[in-house]
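Issue: copy button drops trailing tokens. Both records pasted manually instead:
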Amino acid sequence: MIDNISWLAIYPEIVLLVMACVIALVDLGVSSPRRTGTYVLTMLTLAVVAAMQGMYASSGNTFYAFSNMVVSDSMGNWLKCFSTLALMVTLVYGRPYAADRDMLRGGELFTLSLFSLLGMFIMISANNFLMIYLGLELMALSSYALVALRRDNATASEAAMKYFVLSAMASGFLLYGLSMMYGATGSLDITEVFKAISSGQIRHQVLVFGLVFVVSGLAFKLGAVPFHMWIPDVYQGAPTVVTLLIGGAPKLAGFAMTMRLLVDGLLPLAIDWQQMLAVLAIGSLVIGNVAAIAQTNLKRMLAYSTISQMAFVLLGLMSGVINGNFDPTTTQVAYSAAMFYVITYVLTTLAAFGVILLLTREGFESEEISDMAGLNQRSPLYAGVLAVCLFSMAGIPPLVGFYAKLSILQALMASGQAAYIGLAVFAVVMSLIGAFYYLRVVKVMYFDAPTSTAKVSAPLDVRVVLTLNGALVLGLGLLPGGLMALCADAIVRSLAS
């Protein structure tokens, strides 16, 4: 029998599912070219869901539901709250762009976004291998359709095909790895898997073999080298609003899935998966930063930038356990730094793509670096917001990206291990290389002659949200303590459960 706690744990998911179906039906009667009715109803739904998740997260309670298949804890609820807010911001930025490109003939952009968010929620709350896979596929299938939403655009269709094929391969890797885990431990329940591995009665070789496939599947989703090949093509080929839908909120879900699988389930195998994460992080730092220098397309450059940024998240995740010794303080510092990093990365990405979306006009994609020439003369505000985002990604103080990188480096240094300190130094050197391509865009915006004299105009809601977004990147850099404390508390509560 399903008890009341089980229903309580998934109220936000129920609201999201019901409203996604209602919005799909209501949209049939909406005739405005910008789908105003559908848009307003979607935003109200997301606002309610975000408020519910915020209340759940603030309570700090942890409970398991549906025979331990679902977990509702502080970390998961905060990540779901931030994912919902990220989707709201994305839709505010993306609606004018979508309307100009005939992507709002139906309400698919809104309904598919809601179903994609539902998939993320399931991934974040999953305490069972099948639930993780279910959430992953729901999110992925919605994303495929979104990438191919411009049916008459050959580049978008090609990007959708690449995304579909490579993502299906990643899902296959993950599923194969999870089936190996199930075969070795006899359970799909992540808590039971943890207990079985801790008992030491299981063949280590089988587990490590399965672990390789699980980590490969996770690396695909996070976009780590050598499983990054889909990111540049999809980022560049997809309509810019869909690029932001893929590059924003799903990163939070990917982080949660990694935490659930590697930390909650496979922590006794930490020595094995930390080595794999180290290799992925080194590769991502090198290729992400070096390849980004050669790019002339801004979306493609941000794609390689994403690869290098995810390397820092991996560095945070791999510095939680030292030599197989589980120390609560070290673990909390490392994992909360990784959580802080991924949240601030999504915040910065939203603002950067928001400016790109704002500069696009009907029939013109403003996605080449040269298109940013003289932006400061045309619109000092938007040039300022984009400059703040790029400086933050480069890790320049006092912006939030600096503190995010610093917290990861502190976690590595705190281990006292020579290899980890070496990794920290390597990450700093690579960040210096990375600063070059970010500063190049700033130079083009402020010092090059404008190529276009077209006035930069945007609806009031876009201007307000974008300004707040840029202010948050700066504000959280000056006062990072609140969000850091929130992440630390969430991680402590999650690990304690």
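Record 2 (pasted manually too):
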Amino acid sequence: MARELEEVKWEKFKLGDLFRIKSNLQLNKNSFIFSENGEYPYFTRTVFNNGILGNVHYLDEEHKLKGNCLAVGMIATRFFYMDKDFYAGQFTKRAIPIGFSLNSRLANYFITVLNKKSKIFQSSLVRNFEKVFKNEEVKLPVKNDGSIDFEFMTSFISELEARQISELEAYLVTTGLSDYVLTSEEEKFLEIFRENEVKWKRFKIGDLFEVNSYKKRFDANKVNILEEGHPYVVRTALNNGIRGYLKEDEEFLNEGNTISFGQDTATMFYQEKPYFTGDKIKIIKSKYKEFNKLNSHFFVSAMSKSFSTFAWGSSSFSINIIENQEIYLPIKNNEIVDFDWDKYINYLGRAKTPPAFDALDLSSGENQLFGDPTTDKKHFTNYSYQNSTQKGELAPKKIVNLMAPLRFLNYPSEKAKYFRIRHGSKDADTSLAISFIVAETLKQYDLIVDYAIPWDIPHSGDYDLEELFDWAMDVVSKTPSKSEAREIRVITD
């Protein structure tokens, strides 16, 4: 293969000369009936499972899309090969070949080339994607006459596949696994999957793990790396992240039975024993005692997949980014069990003491909101004004009313018809009662309200973009009836 590559001629081609970009008709997942036996894939913006959210039954010919093309979601801009006819969700597009036909191997070649350019496509606005795509260039192998050598591309991928299979077979023979017979317990687990008893659910990493910084950074240029001692973990993807071993003050050892997370590289490894770290390493510690060496590999695989589309930069180093990233895990029952409400209340805590916003000592940011050019901070409630520890002034009633949005509902002017409100159940900054009152008041004015309480989401929670986009498209595509104003929902998945 290396010899052949040296002999290959390469030329640049504009993607607009190779593929035609087509938008898909706007349909959300609520338009379909999902089933394991559904004959059509439903493609959406997810980067998991080849971009397929699930299988659906036949809807109509109008929205059914012809297969043997490339599909792309407009969030991560990752390309996937759709070999058969399919339906697609909102904010998705197709790349249809011009003057040639795809096959699975040729498609894999183009997918590899295109996905390397994801960062370029992500940097453009959705409305500019087609223009950017058309003008972007790729290098492809050519024949002596300058035409694209599709045969070489197909054979190249075929050879890669054959090599991988050969290496796998050799590994199985070497390890004695080539003729391995499953145990009765292993057969049982397989049967569970066959019968579709296992469901999958999204979890935020921060709900499952504590994400901590290292106790001390050890500079590789300033330490003596040895053949024995405690593991020295850095951002390398090799040798489980271990560069060597150190004999340093054990006070600075990070806990074992944790996952080391290398920033910049998003390399993750299970560390069984206590270890020292180099630069930009986060320590991911499970909140559950059941975490161990065996199930850690499942978590590491899920997390690696989740971070695979990240374009790493300084903003991606934060603990908050890692905590809010989601992974898919198997569940047996889609419900909360053994729930202790008192423990949950203690777990939530609170961010502010009463009165939460109009602080008696004028220390709240909201107090400054009501200030003016001569007085930096003012009270805006009678209670805090009367009990002020700073002898603070009371903001004029007119200004207070301007900051109370519900008052504007009484105005005769035209109002927005659709409202989507999300208030995390773990929000310790604002009472759940506030959002509930807002939602119920809006409904009294016959406005359409989609109100939900995402489970265990804090004040800074990152809500489901997929659902948000679907809701927005519903709003602009139809006029819901009053009966569509949804009841209170607690989102647990």
